[in-house]
Amino acid sequence: MTKIDATNARILRELQRDGRISNLDLADRVGLSPSACLRRVQELERSGVIRGYRAVLDLTQMGIGFVAYVTVGLNTHTKAAQEAFERAAALAPQVRECHNITGTVEYLLRVECTDLAAYKHWHTEVLGILPQVQSITTFVVMGSPKDDRA
């Protein structure tokens, strides 16, 4: 396991802000030589601390006008029910995140659709017909003053 010392933490923060930063600029920002910085980044990648690089998208430019967090409760608490639900969530392009959580329900989803009508269709015709689903609660995102997801 790679040690996350203060320098590695600074490297990771900078890469989270800008995954396309040049090694020269990154080295300058974290106070390392370019070769030492590159070695650290490569070790963070090789060890799996850095799992990949992503583009941050403007959802409205992509036609996504509706975002919601959805909690889902299952009617049975078996491994088979969880696996079946997780397979269905993985196949739904509207589901951008699926988290197995603790509490009164089993899952928290981040769902992105073109509009309310598209969400209603997905909610009723896809999620609502899964045999293991017992409860669905939708929390519509009205704004995101902070969103550090990449």
Q: Can you tell me about this structure?
A:
By secondary structure, the chain is of the alpha+beta class. The chain has two domains: 6-46, Winged helix-like DNA-binding domain superfamily/Winged helix DNA-binding domain (Arc Repressor Mutant, subunit A, Orthogonal Bundle), CATH 1.10.10.10; 59-140, Alpha-Beta Plaits, CATH 3.30.70.920. It has five helices and four strands, in the order H-H-H-E-H-E-E-H-E. A four-stranded antiparallel beta sheet has the order 2-3-1-4. Strand 2 (95-100) and strand 3 form a beta hairpin. Helix 1 packs across helix 2 and helix 2 (23-30) crosses helix 3 (34-46).
Topology:
Blueprint: H1 6-17, H2 23-30, H3 34-46, E1 66-74, H4 79-91, E2 95-100, E3 107-113, H5 116-127, E4 133-140
Antiparallel strand pairs: 1-3, 1-4, 2-3
Essential attributes:
single chain, elongated, Alpha-Beta Plaits, alpha+beta, 2 domains, four-stranded antiparallel sheet, 150 residues, Arc Repressor Mutant, subunit A
What is this structure, in a nutshell?
By secondary structure, the chain is of the alpha+beta class.
From the N-terminal CA to the C-terminal CA, the straight-line distance is 23 Å
CATH topology heading of the largest domain: Alpha-Beta Plaits
Radius of gyration: 20 Å
Sheet with most strands:
4 strands, antiparallel
Order of helices and strands: HHHEHEEHE
CATH architecture of the largest domain: 2-Layer Sandwich
The total tally of domains equals: 2
Kindly report the spatial arrangement of strands forming the biggest sheet.
2-3-1-4
CATH superfamily of the largest domain: Lrp/AsnC effector binding domain/regulation of amino acid metabolism (RAM) domain
